[in-house]
Design brief:
The chain is an alpha/beta fold. The strands form two sheets. It has a seven-stranded mixed β-sheet with strand order 3-2-1-4-7-9-10, sandwiched between helices. A three-stranded antiparallel β-sheet has the order 5-6-8, covered by helices on one side. The chain starts with a helix and ends in an 11-residue tail after the last helix. It binds 1,5-di-O-phosphono-alpha-D-ribofuranose (RI2). 1,5-di-O-phosphono-alpha-D-ribofuranose (RI2) binds next to helix 2, helix 6 and strand 6.
Length: 323
C-alpha cells in the first residue's frame, strides 16, 4: 500500500457519511456545507486511531481531500478545510487533536456571527412595506429578510420555486416561520412579478475577484431582468464565499449535476434521443448586481477584490495535499 493509499484509508472512514450527505445534497447550502465539513474534521480528529503526529496529520489531510471532492463550486467548503488545517499544530497527537477541534469550533461560531452581522447590513437596504423576490434557499439571504422583520419592517416575499430541486420551498417554509406572507411562483414567472417587487435578494456559492457572483442556476437571468425592470438586487454572502483562487486568474468550476434531477428515465425514453444537461450554478456579471452584502458591510461588486485581498492575500494553497 502506498503512503497516499494508507492516508486515504485512515482518513475517509469518519467523514464518509458527511461527504456522502454533501454530495447527495442532503446537506446543502454553501455555509451549511462549510460548517458540516469543519465538524467532520472534528469528528475525524476525535475518532482517528493515528498514534503518532505524522499519521494524525496524514489522516486529517485525507479526510479533507474526501470532503473537498464532494462539490466543486461552493468555495466555502475548501475555505473551511483550509481554515482548520492551517491551524492544526502541536508536537503530539493530543495537542494536534485539540488544535483541530478548537479551530473547527471557532470557524463554525464565526459563520453564525457573520450571518447575523450581514443580516443587519442587508436589512438596512430593505424598507418597511417592501416586497422581496428570492431565488433558491440561502441562509445568508434569509438572514437579511429576518433581520428586517426583527427591525419591525413589514416584508412580503415572492419566492421562486427554483427548479430542478425546488429549494424555494425551504425558503417559503422558513419565511412563514417569521410570519412573512409568501407567494410561490414558478421560475419562468419571475419577470412578470418583478414590477411588484422592491428588492431581489439572493445568496452566493462563490464570489470571484472581478465581482462576478456564482449562485444557483437562474440567478443571472433574474439579475438581468431585475436591472431591466429597475429593481435593485443584492447578494448576501459572508466572506467565506470569497474565492481566493480567482485572485490569481483561476475560474470557478460550475458543478454539473445528474440529469435525473431534471427528467425521469421513462419520460426521457418516451421523448426519444436527447441530451439533458443540469448545471447547478451560473455567473452573474458584476454590472448586473447592485451590492454584495457581507459581515464587513456592503460593497459594490467591482470593489469586492479589496476585501478579498485583505482577508486572503494572494495565498490560498492546498493544505490537504500530501507534502
Ligand atoms: P447559504 C445554495 O446552493 C444556493 O445556491 C444558495 O444561494 C447558496 O447555496 C448559498 O447558501 P446549493 O447547495 O450559504 O443548494 O447562504 O446547490 O445558505
Amino acid at each position: 500500500m502506498t503512503e497516499r493509499e494508507r492516508a486515504d484509508r485512515e482518513g475517509v472512514s469518519a467523514v464518509e457519511e458527511t461527504a456522502e450527505a454533501i454530495a447527495t445534497m442532503e446537506i446543502r447550502g454553501a455555509a451549511t456545507i462549510a460548517a458540516a465539513a469543519a465538524e467532520a474534521l472534528t469528528t475525524q480528529a476525535r475518532e482517528t486511531d493515528a498514534d503518532d503526529p505524522e499519521a494524525f496529520r496524514r489522516s486529517m489531510r485525507a479526510a479533507a481531500r474526501r470532503l473537498r471532492e464532494t462539490r466543486p463550486t461552493a468555495v466555502s467548503l475548501p475555505n473551511a478545510l483550509r481554515y482548520v488545517l492551517r491551524r492544526m499544530e502541536g508536537r503530539n497527537v493530543d495537542a494536534l487533536r485539540r488544535s483541530v477541534i478548537d479551530a473547527s469550533g471557532t470557524f463554525v461560531a464565526q459563520l453564525d456571527r457573520a450571518r447575523e452581522d450581514l443580516g443587519r447590513v442587508g436589512a438596512n437596504r430593505l424598507a418597511d412595506g417592501d416586497t422581496v423576490m428570492t431565488h433558491c434557499h440561502s441562509t445568508d439571504a434569509l438572514a437579511c429578510i429576518e433581520a428586517a422583520v426583527e427591525q419591525g419592517k413589514a416584508i412580503e416575499a415572492v419566492v421562486k420555486e427554483t427548479r430542478p430541486r425546488n429549494q424555494g420551498h425551504i425558503t417559503a417554509e422558513q419565511l412563514r416561520e417569521v410570519d412573512v406572507p409568501v407567494t410561490l411562483i414558478v421560475d419562468s414567472a419571475a419577470r412578470r412579478y418583478l414590477d411588484g417587487v422592491d428588492h431581489v435578494v439572493v445568496g452566493a456559492d462563490s464570489i470571484a475577484a472581478d465581482g462576478g457572483v456564482i449562485n444557483k442556476i437562474g440567478t443571472s437571468g433574474l439579475a438581468v431582468n431585475a436591472r431591466e425592470r429597475g429593481v435593485p438586487i443584492m447578494t448576501a454572502a459572508q466572506t467565506i464565499k470569497l474565492h481566493p483562487e480567482t485572485l490569481t486568474g483561476h475560474t470557478v468550476a460550475i458543478e454539473m449535476r445528474s440529469e435525473s434531477e431534471v427528467i425521469t428515465e421513462s419520460t426521457r425514453e418516451s421523448i426519444g434521443p436527447i441530451n439533458v444537461e443540469n448545471p447547478a450554478f451560473d455567473v452573474t456579471p458584476p454590472r448586473y448586481m447592485d451590492a454584495i452584502v457581507t459581515e464587513h458591510g456592503q460593497f459594490p461588486p467591482e470593489s469586492i477584490v479589496t476585501l478579498m485581498r485583505e482577508l486572503f492575500g494572494e495565498g490560498h494553497g492546498e493544505p490537504w495535499a500530501e507534502p
